[in-house]
Design brief:
Strands 2-4-5-7-6 form a five-stranded mixed beta sheet, covered by helices on one side. Strands 1-3 form a two-stranded antiparallel ribbon. Strand 6 and strand 7 form a beta hairpin. It has two domains: 127 residues; 148 residues, Heat Shock Protein 90. Helix content is 59%, strand content 16%. The protein is built from six helices and seven strands. It is α+β, with helices and mostly antiparallel strands and 288 residues long. Bound molecules: adenosine-5'-triphosphate and magnesium ion. The site of adenosine-5'-triphosphate has 21 residues, from helix 4 and helix 6.
Length: 288
């Protein structure tokens, strides 16, 4: 009987010792795991800081570079304008046409630099917008005047559909125009012998600006991608259409910053409709 009890006690003691050893081992393992996890977290935090720093440095670099590039470019444009006037007064046709080319290329470069500056500001979260009341009719008139010469280049016609009810939009006038003109210039660029229509309609508390074209259209799988920076359907070196692929990325983000958006519907070979939605100033609500 005593021997049995002693055996059981020994067995119990052994089981307890083994349990204690296991607990101790598991505690060690857990401590090692926690230390490893802390090390990884620390590593990740440091990596995030480095990434944020380099992103800020990249944006600052782009902003400074854009400024440094613009200053001499403005001088080139200014001087070529002066020389062009001189050549005109001397009736020196060949010099006039060369100087006109210099000026046009300079202006083109200036637009590209401005686009790069815009996208870097947007990506750094530093783009600011000034929302104010803007007359819709004034923007429509300007849009028509801007689109007509663009459309003529590819023998397109511009139609405007807008019933003026004195609507007032809440937006940043300069940035809204930039976005709308981007869409109109795309429509004119990717359409030949067709029609580019600007239709403005009220829908609830929003105003919808549809820029419709009868041009080449966009494949469904390409449509979402085009709102990313530097993204074009044809980006080959031999491509037919000029541009950097920044227009839509900038325009969509500007519209989102102004409380709206840009969406797209398109059928390859038949045409595209890009729609800007912008909020109306209070009180203009009507049924859609
Ligand atoms: N109306 C349209 N019809 C057909 N394709 C279009 C149309 N608008 C845009 N796209 C396609 O989307 C791409 C991106 O347009 P986005 O305006 O961003 O750049 P881009 O016009 O090529 O250059 P950028 O505007 O910077 O001068 C275009 O290259 C084109 O492939
Ligand atoms: Mg464009």
């Amino acid at each position: 009987m005593l021997a049995q009890i002693q055996d059981r006690d020994r067995a119990l003691q052994e089981a307890q010792d083994e349990l204690e050893a296991r607990v101790e081992q598991r505690t060690h393992e857990l401590q090692a795991e926690i230390t490893e996890r802390r090390r990884v977290e620390e590593h990740l935090r440091a990596a995030k800081q480095v990434a944020e720093q380099s992103s800020r440095a990249k944006s600052a670099f782009l902003a400074n570079m854009s400024h440094e590039l613009r200053t001499p470019l403005n001088a080139i444009i200014g001087y070529s304008e002066m020389l062009e006037e001189d050549a005109e007064s001397r009736a020196d046709e060949s010099a006039v046409s060369d100087l006109r080319r210099i000026r046009a290329s300079g202006k083109h470069l200036l637009v590209l630099i401005q686009d790069i500056l815009d996208i870097s500001k947007i990506e750094a979260g530093k783009m600011t917008v000034h929302i104010e009341n803007v007359s819709v009719q004034a923007v429509v008139a300007e849009a028509r005047a801007t689109a007509e010469p663009l459309a003529r280049k590819n023998r397109n016609r511009v139609d405007v559909i807008h019933e003026d009810r004195g609507e007032v939009m809440l937006t940043d006038a300069v940035k809204f125009r930039q976005s709308l003109f981007n869409l109109l210039s795309n429509a004119c660029k990717f359409t030949e012998d067709g029609v580019v229509t600007l239709e403005v309609e009220t829908q609830g508390r929003d105003l919808l600006w549809h820029v419709r074209d009868t041009g080449i259209g966009i494949e469904p799988e390409q449509q979402h991608r085009l709102f990313q920076s530097f993204s074009q359907v044809d980006s080959s070196a031999t491509r037919k259409y000029s541009g950097t692929g920044l227009g839509l990325a900038i325009s969509q983000r500007l519209c989102q910053l102004m409380g709206g958006d840009i969406t797209l519907r398109s059928e390859p070979g038949r045409g595209s409709v890009f729609t800007i939605r912008m909020p109306l100033a209070g009180g203009e609500e009507t049924a859609s």
